[in-house]
């Protein structure tokens, strides 16, 4: 009864009511569609009336959707929509993107006529900054798709890929110029930072951002519906710094070990950083302050980590 009502409400776009029934139905169901529909209804909570995802899915919601979809795949490995939705959730969260590529390739092999799958695959490649792979997928759609709408979407994405690649190249060039200039400048007296280049040497960098500073290892970026939290290990302390958006944080790199955009999730390898922040107004709160800037530094700099 719960499953039937949940599906009925879902088809009527009454997602809140559908969620309640499908949650009940999914607890002991061996029906792959129940698990898929429950995940689908949960995914709709982050989507506006225009069909665009508004912000990030919360960590808890993403974990629940992933669990339901993996159960659906286990029960029905040939049902490709489970692969697509799981890959989409990862893309929105900007994490587990390698898994998303594998999921979409499997979906394409099972349903080669479903052209929305390679379209999503190209978006994942672009997010990973694998622009050549993204273009190959999209060029194939432009040349081979019999759907005018699909060809138009592929062409639009090709333009987006080119724009993103150009933007990231400009950012990289700008960061390299800033880092080179900072390396040439002497640090003014009295503004030594908590992690700087080994001394003696010409590599002391100029203080670039105003605020309190801490040196440590960036281990995780948690993306929630109302902002992001950076998890830093500094000595024996674990610190949490928040901002409303990743786009509000200034990221600068002084090392070739760090490339591309900072994304949500666990860092594949903890990264040495100098973080500038505004201290929290309330001592003992959920975070230690508001992050202003993150500077990625070489591992051999004089860091407190």
Q: Secondary-structure element order, as H and E?
A: HHHHHHHHHEEEEEE
Annotated CATH architecture of the largest domain: Alpha Horseshoe
Secondary structure: number of strands = 6
**Please, how many domains?**
2
Q: Mind sketching the topology for me?
A:
Elements: H1 2-11, H2 15-26, H3 32-44, H4 59-75, H5 80-93, H6 97-110, H7 116-127, H8 131-144, H9 148-184, E1 212-224, E2 227-234, E3 237-243, E4 250-253, E5 265-279, E6 289-296
Parallel strand pairs: 3-6, 4-6
Antiparallel strand pairs: 1-2, 1-5, 2-3, 5-6
Helix pairs in contact: 1-2, 1-3, 2-3, 3-4, 3-5, 4-5, 5-6, 5-7, 6-7, 7-8, 7-9, 8-9
Report on the structure:
By secondary structure, this protein is an alpha/beta fold. The chain has 2 domains: 2-163, Serine Threonine Protein Phosphatase 5, Tetratricopeptide repeat; 212-296, Beta Barrel (OB fold (Dihydrolipoamide Acetyltransferase, E2P)), CATH 2.40.50. The chain contains 9 helices and 6 strands. It has helices at residues 2-11, 15-26, 32-44, 59-75, 80-93, 97-110, 116-127, 131-144, 148-184, and strands at 212-224, 227-234, 237-243, 250-253, 265-279, 289-296. The chain has a 5-stranded mixed β-barrel with strand order 1-2-3-6-5. The termini are far apart. Residues 186-192 and 199-204 have low confidence and may be disordered.
């Amino acid at each position: 009864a719960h499953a039937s009502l949940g599906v009925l409400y879902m088809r009527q776009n009454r997602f809140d009511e559908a969620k309640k029934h499908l949650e009940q139905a999914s607890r002991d169901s061996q029906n792959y569609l129940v698990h898929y529909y429950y995940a689908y209804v949960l995914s709709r909570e982050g989507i506006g009336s225009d069909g665009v995802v508004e912000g990030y899915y919360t960590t808890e919601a993403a974990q629940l959707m992933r669990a339901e979809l993996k159960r659906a795949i286990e029960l029905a490995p040939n049902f490709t929509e489970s692969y697509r939705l799981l890959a989409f959730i990862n893309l929105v969260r900007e994490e587990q993107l390698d898994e998303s590529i594998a999921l979409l390739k499997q979906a394409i092999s099972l349903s080669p006529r479903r052209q929305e799958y390679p379209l999503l695959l190209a978006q994942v490649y672009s997010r990973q900054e694998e622009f050549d792979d993204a273009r190959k997928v999209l060029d194939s759609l432009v040349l081979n798709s019999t759907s005018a709408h699909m060809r138009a979407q592929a062409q639009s994405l090709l333009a987006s890929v080119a724009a993103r690649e150009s933007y990231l190249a400009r950012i990289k060039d700008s960061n390299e110029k800033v880092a080179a200039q900072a390396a040439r400048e002497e640090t003014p007296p009295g503004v030594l930072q908590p992690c700087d280049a080994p001394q003696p040497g010409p590599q002391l960098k100029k203080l670039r951002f105003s605020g309190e500073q801490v040196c440590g290892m960036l281990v995780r970026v948690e993306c929630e519906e109302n902002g992001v939290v950076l998890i830093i290990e500094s000595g024996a302390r674990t610190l949490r710094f928040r901002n409303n958006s990743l786009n509000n944080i200034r990221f600068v790199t002084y090392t070739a070990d760090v490339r591309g955009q900072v994304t949500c999730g666990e860092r594949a390898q903890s990264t040495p950083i100098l973080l500038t922040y505004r201290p929290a107004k309330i001592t003992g709160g959920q975070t230690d302050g508001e992050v202003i800037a993150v500077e990625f530094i070489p591992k051999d700099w004089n860091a407190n980590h």
